[in-house]
Write a structure and sequence with these properties.
By secondary structure, this protein is an alpha/beta fold. It contains four helices and four strands. The longest helix has 17 residues.
Length: 99
């Protein structure tokens, strides 16, 4: 079982993006992995508008402990680019998937 960091959009169409992240997590579970999707968890207690930098720093720590960062979707948001750049800078495996 791999820990997989789910890299997918959050900002923009929140409802659609949350549904897509949920589908991505389900797909990973169905394939025997453990999804880590901070954008489904952190908004429960962090404010996206005023605490985004805190969330991005916490995301880096989660990327550190995950086995793989998996990109879902065809659009790369600013937050996703931050996560991808960080993952690449530490030599983290990056997978591309579709939902």
């Amino acid at each position: 079982m791999k820990l997989i960091y789910v890299c997918s959009p959050y900002r923009g169409d929140f409802n659609k993006n949350v549904r897509n992240a949920q589908k991505a997590c389900r797909q990973l579970v169905d394939n025997g992995h453990v999804p880590i999707a901070p954008h489904l968890f952190f908004p429960q207690f962090l404010n996206e508008e005023t605490e985004r930098e805190i969330a991005l720093e916490m995301n880096k720590r989660l990327i550190d402990v995950c086995d793989v960062l998996c990109v879902f979707g065809n659009e790369i948001s600013d937050g996703m680019k931050f996560e991808l750049d960080y993952a690449n800078s530490i030599g983290k495996d990056v997978w591309k998937a579709g939902v």
